[in-house]
Design brief:
Elements: E1 5-9, H1 16-19, E2 29-32, E3 43-47, E4 52-55, H2 62-76, E5 92-97, E6 121-126, E7 128-133, E8 138-143, H3 149-159, E9 170-172, E10 177-178, H4 182-197, E11 203-216, H5 218-228, E12 233-238, E13 244-249, E14 252-257, E15 260-263, E16 266-271, H6 276-288, H7 290-308, E17 317-326, E18 330-340, H8 347-354, E19 362-363, H9 365-375, E20 386-391, E21 396-399, E22 404-408, E23 411-420, H10 426-445
Antiparallel strand pairs: 1-8, 2-3, 2-12, 3-7, 4-6, 5-6, 5-20, 7-8, 9-11, 10-11, 11-19, 11-23, 12-13, 13-22, 14-15, 14-21, 15-18, 16-18, 17-18, 20-21, 22-23
Helix pairs in contact: 5-10
Length: 448
């Protein structure tokens, strides 16, 4: 079996120290664990200059696109890492599925406006990655066996060179504005609860969008945001000169390692307190909330069903239920569902059978998605989609793209939402949608 070469580089706790050398490169991508300020994430992954860029065609089915992804991995070629080297990526695909990729999987209406015109899926095929292991404090360049020596040497020269000048400027041109008024938000919550009372659904995740014009490059904005809100599934995906996806997500969607599957849904949120006592009180309130525990359990059951489509019978388990995770702006209630891929199933089967994540749709999933399309005035684009890598060994990790901003065509978009159930109070839900993104909006508005 061909083996990747692995070359040690100087350890950097902040991935920006390396990424700024190639942030302007075609297909530049940083999957960021949020170190040194965040504590849960282990690996940063950096790459650029993909061998190919795969975007879903306007009339292409999800299965046909999946076949192209598998073919790209086959063309790159299977490879292993050296004995004793346990890194998450050996060359393969890095990119995103937008929330609206779900339209290729389910029959949904088309009422919400597609005003951002974002491709529903896009992946680069990469034959190298710079991977930082923060547990071992190692930084290593992983080169797929097909990577030419000359290309490897140029990468090493670039990564070992002096740091480039500081990035260009970034500034908002006006404060963020919501797409939905408070009255419109209240009306939408009322309609969702009418659907719940009539038996259409049990829960619907409803979101609102905030937008502001900007000038400059998103990279400095990412630096401000990751400092204000470090999270273990952060990411920066370049979409062109001044366009990018910037994610500060705390939520894992699906991970596959040697056939073992894990998903960690978030459902339940409280703001951080201004004092230690109020912070502890908010955390305790979340942990004891019957409403939030019921919502979380509802999504756990949905995900057990989704994983069951691709996992071996009897392998799906819930090893962790209602755990508390705390971030700079919020406390979250998090559970864990695991399984083992069934024979004949791969990571792409799992992805297609589970997308989009149940924690950001509702239950039952398809009906909830139909109601979302009816009540949210615009399509979600990257919000509640997934950022992910999938390597030539079948290893995969992916996020739920919450706390995520799209910088495109001089306008930055950011979304906040939450799960609505029968006894939801619209004022509390409205405030929660603001709380989740408040630190992101306020941080960027400081550039005005």
């Amino acid at each position: 079996m061909p083996t990747c070469s692995v070359i040690a580089l100087a350890y950097r706790a902040d991935p920006a120290d390396y990424f700024k050398r190639l942030r302007c490169a075609e297909g530049a991508v940083l999957l960021d664990a949020g170190r040194p300020n965040a504590e849960r994430g282990r690996y940063d992954l950096i790459s650029a200059w993909p061998l190919a860029q795969l975007q879903i065609g306007s009339d292409e089915s999800a299965n046909d696109f999946a076949a192209r992804l598998r073919d790209a991995l086959t063309r790159l070629g299977h490879a292993t890492l050296p004995d004793g080297c346990e890194l998450p990526f050996a060359g393969g695909l890095i990119g995103y599925l937008s929330y609206d990729f779900g339209r290729r999987l389910e029959d949904l209406p088309s009422q919400a406006r597609d005003d951002l015109q974002m491709p529903q899926a896009s992946f680069g095929l990469y034959d190298w990655a710079l991977i930082t292991d923060h547990h071992e404090q190692r930084c290593q360049l992983v080169c797929h066996p097909s990577l030419p020596d000359a290309r490897r040497d140029r990468l090493l020269q670039l990564l070992r060179s002096d740091a480039p000048p500081a990035a260009g400027s970034f500034a908002l041109q006006a404060p963020f504005q919501a797409d939905i008024s408070q009255a419109g938000y209240a009306e939408a919550i009322g309609r969702i609860q009418d659907y719940i009372h009539s038996g259409d659904c049990y829960q619907v995740n409803f979101a609102q969008r905030f937008q502001a014009p900007y000038q400059g490059n998103p990279w400095p904005a990412f630096g401000l945001l990751r400092q204000a809100c470090p999270t273990p599934f952060s990411a920066y995906l370049s979409l062109g000169v001044d366009d990018a996806i910037v994610s500060l997500s705390p939520e894992r969607f699906l991970k596959v390692s040697q056939g073992h599957v894990e998903t960690r849904p978030i459902k339940g949120t409280r703001p951080r307190g201004n004092t230690e006592s109020s912070d502890q009180a908010n955390a305790a309130e979340l942990l004891s909330s019957r409403k939030d525990r019921a919502e979380n359990l509802m999504i756990v059951d949905l995900l057990r069903n989704d994983l069951g489509r691709s996992c071996a019978i009897g392998s799906v388990r819930v090893p962790e239920l209602f755990a508390l995770e705390s971030y700079p702006n919020v406390h979250h209630l998090v559970s864990c569902v695991t399984g083992q891929l069934a024979p004949g199933k791969d990571s792409i089967d799992l992805l297609l059978g589970s997308f989009p994540g149940g924690s950001i749709t509702g239950a039952p999933k398809i009906r909830a998605m139909q109601i979302i399309d009816e009540l949210e005035p615009t399509r979600r684009a990257i919000y509640c989609g997934s950022l992910l890598y999938l390597d030539v060994r079948g290893e995969m990790d992916s996020s739920i793209a919450i706390r995520t901003l799209l910088f495109k065509d001089g306008q930055v978009s950011c979304w906040g939402g939450g799960g609505i159930v029968a006894d939801s109070n619209w004022q509390a839900e409205y405030q929660e949608s603001l709380t989740k993104v408040d630190v992101l909006l306020r941080t960027l508005e400081q550039t005005l």
